[in-house]
Amino acid sequence: MGSPTTDLDQTAPVREPSPSPLLRPARTAARYAVRHALPARYLARAARQGDPVARLMRDPDLRQQPYALYEQLRAAGPLTPSALGLVSTSHAVVQDVLRSDRFGVGFDLARVPGRIGRVLRFGDELDASGVAERPSMLVVDPPDHTRYRRLVSRAFTPRATAAFEPMIQRTADALLDDLAGAQGPVDLVDGFAAQLPVLVIAELLGVPTDRRADFLRWGAAAAATLDAGLPLRRYLAAERGLRAMHGFLRQHFDRLRRDPGDDLVSRLVGLPGEEALTERELHATVMLLLGAGFETTVNLIGNAVVALDAHRDQWDALRAEPSGWANAVEEALRWDSPVQLTGRTARAGVEVAGRRLPPGTRVTVLLGAANRDPGVFPDPARFDVTRANAREHLAFSAGVHYCVGAGLARLEAEVALRVLSERFPRLRVAGRPVRRDLRTLRGFEVLPVSLG
Ligand code: HEM
User: Residue 186 maps to which CATH number?
Assistant: First the structure.
């Protein structure tokens, strides 16, 4: 593969300068101060003053059931001021903002002015960077975004995704075989919903599946870094998870450089010449795929099982007519969205919902609320797996950052739910499910079920 110069590039990747270990605690403190301690203080003050979005960010009880608060925000208008900038619950506005090239996700460390910028740059460290830090494609605007996205999207075409179906089916069957012998209630998240996505993404990325328990542990801690304003102990746990993942990835890349397979990561580490990714780009890209690959689909499967348990007639109807599962997955994505919010910043002056927004305006889009917009989804709080336009939800975002793995996630969830209903038709939630304490992601950490 490639010219001799290319081979040289592959065997001698440019290493990031490793920051002095002596400075590590100071860097951690800098990151924590700017990304979490300051936002936490700001949000706490705004919550005390009654800001509904700040209350949502601060109050775990409110996050258990955010939908009444979303309706309160909706009543205030399609674009309302909040502690997180302007916020929208409107399907039309959210879609416009996500699709508009006048908005970007970009937040470039190099350009943040003043003392905060200096602290951020000092705290910047590859091994502690999360899935939503540059140069992760999630937070990069075109043209760089286009380049990263093109490199991975080939692995997610409808054809490539469909080729995974037999593997997903086999994996789901094997996981349920293991559960079948259990006496009494089992935790469906730990035993099934979390395992299936991690096994699938491990296959796609050429990662040994025997490391999956490690990924799940690291990922569960690291997922919190999508949220700002974490308490110190949670941040430190998240950082440990991130460091462990980056350490693993470094060894994985070295292994694939020596002995490439035909997986996506082997292709990424072996890109020739001008296409080659820097070490930081490689880490950011693969870390995002790994994290996004298993920290979201687990939530979709868990949320769907709980919704169907509460709407038993629909579970029974789907068992009788399994062709309905694809739409049931769309309705679960709409009704209780695994990713509740994201945000954009105006790159230029732009008009939204009749308002002129100056460059730099931040807009938080509440995907979970847009998916319950009564103007698009009649009787939106009703869970209905036969809803004709369920697929118009924005649970996978829209525009250039539309989820790369949407097709794979849909397939995994559809197979998972179908197999589960065939194998355990009398499955019931048995005990109180426990939600994950996260703001951006919404799903269950523990889901006790009896298999019947
Ligand atoms: C139910 C499961 C999933 C949900 C709800 C979900 C949701 C999302 C959302 C909302 C975004 C865009 C965020 C934004 O616009 O700011 C996104 C982006 C992304 N997702 Fe997913 N995702 C899921 C599964 C997956 C899977 C299985 C993979 C990969 C294997 C994946 C890979 C990605 C990547 C790489 C991006 C970044 C795309 C870009 O910036 O161009 N996701 N996802």
Answer: 1.10.630.10
